[in-house]
Amino acid sequence: MRIKQINWFGLVGGTLVLVLIPISIYFSWWQLIIGENLLTANVSPVNTHFSLMGTQFSPALIWAMNLTGILTFLACGIIMLIYSLIPARPYSKDLLSFAYRKPLYTIILYIAALLIVVFATQAALGVGLPIVGTSTLILPSSLTGGVSVSVMVSSAFLWPFWLAIVAAGLFIAARIYHSKLSSSAKQTPQPNAAIPVTQTEQTVAATA
After folding, report:
1. Are 188 and 116 a contacting pair, CB within 8 Å?
2. Is the pLDDT of residue 203 over 80?
3. 46, 70 in Cβ contact below 8 A?
4. In 3D, which of 136, 132, 143, 172 has the Cα closest to residue 43?
5. CA distance 66 to 56
6. CB-hemisphere CA count at 13 Å for 60?
7. 32, 79, 101, 166: most buried by Cβ count inside 10 Å?
8. pLDDT of the residue at 126
């Protein structure tokens, strides 16, 4: 294995995705806090859970989706690492094609699901929840027994989310860089290639 043949974008990206799995288990990508201890939502593709008045819970459907996210990141990270070390093999492009889109698609689906949940909550409860930022939330009177109650709401994308975007960018860069590696491999002369025999050498051999 030659150092020049390694796809460094894929190597760093694959390592980053594998590191992102345990990070995302302990640190969420997006967090919503309502009140001081009323409701907290910690959302990431590998670990989504809620805390209501100090009681933490995670629905079974969301747990299954998180498990799918873990397996997706694990598979694409390992496959990208394997490809990056042997990008010139005949099957390497198939490995790259399988892996390089996965982080980007996961981020897109994650953002889409987050927006759907937030807008659905707004429509169901008639309250506005910020995707990013801080606002004052007035709870519906039907939930407070007719008493007007307002609480502070804050939400933000946390640093693991931006780390995931960097990883997805490295995966795309690995796909682009693969074209350069392929063209360089085609231009490199094969060590076992036959050396052409000149006419002079043929004449000498014939007279010997």
Report:
1. no
2. no
3. yes
4. 132
5. 16
6. 0
7. 32
8. 67
- Res. 195: pLDDT tops 50: no
What are the structural domain ranges in the chain?
A: 3-190
Start-to-end Cα distance in the chain: 43
Q: Is the pLDDT of residue 146 over 70?
A: no
d(CA 153, CA 33): 6
Burial class (CB in 10 A: 0-12, 13-18, 19+), 170: buried
Distance of alpha carbon 76 from its chain centroid, rounded? Answer: 9
How far apart (Å, rounded) are the C-alpha atoms in residues 32 and 41?
Answer: 5
With 50 as the cut, is the pLDDT of residue 96 above it?
yes
The angle subtended at Cα 39 by Cα 104 and Cα 124, nearest 5°, is 75
Q: Can you state the angle between helices 8-26 and 159-187, rounded to 10 degrees? A: 160
Residue 188: count other Cβ atoms within 10 Å of its Cβ. 12
What's the mean per-residue pLDDT of the chain? 82
- The CATH code of the domain at 3-190 is 1.20.140
**Residue 14 vs residue 58, higher pLDDT:** 14
Name the residue among 45, 87, 56, 70 with its Cα closest to residue 178. 87
Residues whose CB falls within 8 Å of the CB of residue 157, separated by 6 or more in sequence, listed in order: 29, 30, 132
pTM of the model: 0.79
pLDDT of residue 34: 84
Q: What is the mean pLDDT of residues 137-153?
A: 69
Rounded CA separation 154/132 (Å): 7
